[in-house]
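Dear all,

This email documents one entry for the complex benchmark we are building for the journal club exercise. For each entry we list the sequence lines for every component of the assembly. Then comes the predicted three-dimensional structure of the complex as a token string, followed by one or two observations. Please use this as the template for your own entries, and keep the labels exactly as they appear.
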Amino acid sequence: MTLRALDFILGGPQGGGLETSSQILTWAFARAGYGVISDREYFSNIRGRHSYVHAEVSATGLPRALRYPIHLLGAMDAETVFTHFGDLAPGSYLVYDTGEEGKVYESIPSIEPELKARLRAAFREAGLDGTLGSLVKYLSASRRVVPVGLHYASVLSEAQKEVGIAASQASRYVSAILVGAVAGLTGLGDGPVSYGLSRRFPKKELYEPNRYVAGAVASYVKSKFGAPLALEASSIGQRELLVASGNDVSAMAKIVGGLRFQSYYPITPAADESFTLEEYESLHLDGFDSEVVVLQTEDELAAINAAVGAALAGARSATATSGPGFDLMVEGLGWAGMNEVPVVVTYYQRGGPSTGQPTRGAQSDLLSSVFASHGEYPRIVIASGDHEEVFRDAIEALNYAERYQMPVIHLVDKFLANTIASIPMPDLSSIRIDRGKLVGEAAGAGGYKRFDFSSPISPRAFLGQAVMWYTGDEHDEWGHITEDPESRVKIMEKRMRKLEIADSEIPEEARASYYGPERADFLLVGWGFVKGAALAALEDLSAEGLRGAYLHVRMFSPYPSRLVSRILAGFEPDRVIDVEHNYTAQAASLLAMNTGFRIRRSVLKFTGRPMYADELARAVKSVLSGSEREVLSYGA
Amino acid sequence: MCAHYLPHPQYGYMGYCDERGIVFGHQYCEGFTPMSADRLIDVLRARGWVYCVDCRRALFDAEEVLAHLRRGELLTAEFMQDAVAAEEALVAD
């Protein structure tokens, strides 16, 4: 029997080759025509702590969310098995190193004390001696888990004899063992696997030995187990798929959207976007040559101010950061608001406050984005829910910034940033670049008023095109400092009026979306990466006869109040459920503030791990049965 | 434990043989040269530390080094070079 979808986890020590295994397999499955989504979870250290990749591969569609239990666990080390054995479905497969069977969980220093305490209790209850070997036997006997034991050292020794191993690249070959095991169990063909390997290892001297290791392991596994996790033939029907992380999609979109300057200070999970942009600083495409300047500054204060300076000079300008970095940017952002500077901040949300959970996801910076800064100034706040939305929103953020001459904050949660997904190729023909009102060379001809009161959106001249003044103090039409009360009223109204214009011009349908039947029995309200889990959970619930819908909010300033109110009016208040990755249900607060509708029921998760479709579906059922607040916590 | 075996810092079963110049699984060969307690203590005196791959920590005391050795754990003061680790390590700050 073949599978329609496969969920698997690959785990190992951070820095030990896991990223390589994940990339190769994602490319290989996508090459074979399957839809893939894979999330990576890692500790905030550089090397050694447990990290893992959780993926879903689908033969019938492009997967939006992850699920438990899993069909396959591929372990680079014993810690992976100790951490994830509870995730295995009955009858699932466990790939592990038989050389580690004697390893005892108590002796593994990187396992946190809390997990050790849980393991102690579980091992005591099952009567196990604490070794990996005893756990594997137990899983096989009690849960019908099929152990796929490989002696990794012997595999590598064999590879050394047959093809030689480059000493400095040895961890690559551990990656290849897992790639081969997954390929063997799933029956993934040699063509897609070779494609994945060649993408990762373009040089022959690395490609060949890795192909040997992966091929040898795949053949052995296939000969011993068959291909028990084979997927049915893909019916997705996409001729071409883009496989990329949220970070990479944002970088690609910024280039397509005409970005010419990006500043940043490295921070997780934002920095990957800037690293990708750095790879494309020089653009040479079909006779078109251009440059994107990517500037790594000394801190985030400098990053926002450099982006503001570039925008004043006429470059499409952005910066990318995360919570602690954004906090440092707030004063600069206020300066941009005061001076009507078109600058984009791509804000990757992680767990806070303070350093918080640097490598874990969250949606706890929504209110901070909407209200950050002293004083009042207009801003646009967009939040993307999946990779396709990231692509569109990253371009529109640049357009909105220049059209309405105000800061735009583009929220992307870490889950989305670090998730690799296969998506349809973006339609580039529909992309427009809007630079807003510009005066050009004419600005120098007469007296140029940068903040001309005759219109809320004043034509913009770049530095060097005219004489103009910028200051953090309140100012008049020319930019000169003034504390005159009548002038203050005029310029405040001018600035704030721009948000009303944006509200009237940006279609509400682009700011919120309704998914589901016209008349549903209940409504989930969410934003960001919740979208995928919500839509997948609704599919599961629909199979059980529960007809739900999902309201996805994509813009929080200006808020799509009319559309959201209209949708909410169709539901009993007790059948509306807020779903978010934070403790205080921040989006529900903003919804109440903008519509007067108070959502009383919520499903929340703030562990730093993504929301899984299965746990969300269970929580929704609890809420529909009367629970007011469900807090989710699944995931290692 | 062979004195010529320089283990990978994370995968102790894989290492570099400084005698034969190849990557090697952690197993015996005809050139096996046992790592003696005296030699380990000499290394500790010279470098100030010895690393236990199994426990993933540095040891600074001779008694401690000998205790780990008696437990059969993998001790070293030199590692196999891993030139690609940076590509696998994700940013974190």
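Observations: The radius of gyration of chain A is 26 Å. Chain A touches chain B through 50 residues (CB under 8 Å).
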